[in-house]
Amino acid sequence: MPHDAIAVVDFGGQYAHLIATKVRRLRVLAEIRQPEDDIARFRGYKGIILSGSPSLSAFGEDSQYTKAIYDLDVPILGFCFGHQEIAKHYGGTVTHGGREWGPADLQIVGDSPIFRGLSSTERVFMSHFDSVTSVGPGFEEIGRTVLGDTGTPHRYAAIASESLRRYGFQFHPEVDDTVHGGEMIGNFVLGICGCRPSWTMERYVEERVEQVRQQVGDQSVFLLASGGVDSTVAARLLGLALGPERLHLLHVDNGLMRKDESRDVLEAFRQFGLDRNLHFVDASDAFLTALAGAVEPEQKRRIIGNTFIEVFEREARSRGIAQHLLGQGTIYPDTIETGGTKRADTIKTHHNRVPIIEDMIAQGRVVEPLADLYKVEVRELGEKLGIPHDLIWRHPFPGPGLGVRLLCSTGVEDRAGFDAFEPAIADVSAQYGVPAMALPIKSVGVKADLRSYEHPVLLGGSASWERLVEMAGHLFKSVSGINRAIWNLGPTMPARVRPLAATVTRERLDLLREADHLVMEGLRRHGLYASIWQCPTVLVPIEVDGAGREFVIVRPIHSERAMTATPAFLPPALCDELRTEILALPGVSGLALDITTKPPGTIEWE
Ligand code: XMP
């Protein structure tokens, strides 16, 4: 291994990658390993971190994974489930109970090197049902918390055997809410494991360049270049590895782009000197024909992904680009949301992970130089590679484009479950004094790491932003069957909302393009474009006025890695302008602001 590295064992969902990111921040390479990987795959690391798990319990059952890791003479640190497993493996006990949610104060006991440089009390983040209640020989308690208002100490919140170099934390140091979590991970990685911090973006570039050269050999790469952050950074990296002759860029207008997008992207590529082998195809007819009649979100995503490949293969043939590999700017969340690691559920099939592409990956025909990075890291890399600031800091735009922001419907009213959750919504509505109604349409979300396809709730009235967001949180906790809350920006709360039959058409896309353009202009006018991470505008086929006109939703969010998100506040003046401009578009009868966190909603609606 060219660098000192840490193996992070992925026991579940979305946690392991945050740990890996925190380790990389320390300039130490971190690689994800699956729990059942052969022991040979754990050799060569300077230390191992066991992640938490949303679905596994160390209580009662004998968890199946490669336990031979405990025989390796390297330090091991476990979080939450991983902590309980370490305790159990070395003769301790885990029992149900002692549940803690949210922030807690950790009182540090003794002077373990893992807490070096920290205070005697540290704010940590807890999320567990089960607890370690005793430890085996050679282990000791190095931290405890106090349970709620009871004053009862929660023992063994942190444990260690300094001689074995085994450590466990019941809390999650990888989340930002554990204030000095980064320092604790640093004490383990740099101190206890003795890793030398050699993993830098420069090294990353060198290594990726070398890997790309090896994979591609004397062939060429044909990269799908949308003009977004990821594919542009990928283009630059591939250009460095292969030289301009062997890199072809294909920009496809799939008919699902923003207003004037293709024109602007081609211009930016030219200015940036990426136009040596730049090809453009207007394939909007092919995409819209393939999408005709499709309604279900996953079906739409598959059609878009497949059509990209058909267009790509056709263009490669017609331009005589023989012996090519497919290049993509896939980044890590695209893989994980598609269920790309063993324990992750398919939340949505990203366009660059449809089955045809999975087959091509298996045949070694796909080059994805950014597939293990998060957006923040891609941007950092883009800066290093000299890509212009504006290109790097554009809002992310999904590969399937407006296709996942143009909801479709058979027009048949879906009120299954309404009888059960309407009374519960009415209770919360009365408690907050805010009118609320469930809408007869569904959108995609993510709950406890699993995909959900559920109804939004429309809130009305003029309560403060904070109160609306608080009420939305309350609704998600107390009412099952809903995964989004939107706040009505129209002049009155509608009395009745009906679904409209609608599919993907050029006319609806043009309407959405106009609405999206107004939102983007509004954000720029108010100086908010840079501080808001992403702001999808969504066209939803529901009507409030009996005239067949649709609903527009604006979804401004803050995020860092797209794995979680919080709704962003828009100033009332901007909301007023959007109300006037968007409700004046022919074909629009309603407007609302999405105030949903992720989870339980995803950033996109499909
Ligand atoms: P969600 O909606 O899952 O989105 O919270 C997380 C981030 O990923 C983007 N996204 C995609 N990007 N291909 C992409 O390249 C896709 O199929 C895709 N689907 C969602 C989304 O815009 C957000 O930034």
Q: Can you put this structure into words, describing what you see?
A:
The protein folds into three domains: 5-192, Rossmann fold; 201-398, HUPs (Rossmann fold), CATH 3.40.50.620; 409-594, GMP Synthetase, Chain A, domain 3. 32% of the residues lie in helices and 23% in strands. It contains 16 helices and 25 strands. Helix 7 runs antiparallel to helix 8. The protein is globular. Xanthosine-5'-monophosphate binds at residues 333-334, 337, 348, 350-351, 396, 398-400, 534, 562, 598, 602-604.
Features:
606 residues, alpha/beta, Rossmann fold, GMP Synthetase, Chain A, domain 3, 3 domains, 25 strands, globular
Kindly report how far apart the N and C termini lie. 41 Å
CATH topology group of the largest domain: Rossmann fold
CATH superfamily of the largest domain: HUPs
Named at the architecture level, the CATH assignment of the largest domain is: 3-Layer(aba) Sandwich
Q: At the first level of CATH, what is the class of the largest domain?
A: Alpha Beta
What molecules are bound to this protein?
A: xanthosine-5'-monophosphate
Give the oligomer, counting copies of the same chain as homo and different chains as hetero: single chain
Q: Please tally the helical runs, counting DSSP H or I stretches of 4 or more residues.
A: 16
Helix-strand category:
alpha/beta
The biggest beta sheet reads:
9 strands, mixed
**Average of pLDDT:** 91
Kindly state the percentage of residues in helix: 25-40%
Shape: globular
Q: What is the radius of gyration computed over CA atoms, rounded to a whole number of angstroms?
A: 26 Å
| Spatial arrangement of strands, main beta sheet | 2-1-3-4-9-8-7-5-6
User: How many β-strand stretches?
Assistant: 25
Beta-strand residue fraction? 15-25%
Number of domains: 3
Poorly predicted residue ranges: none
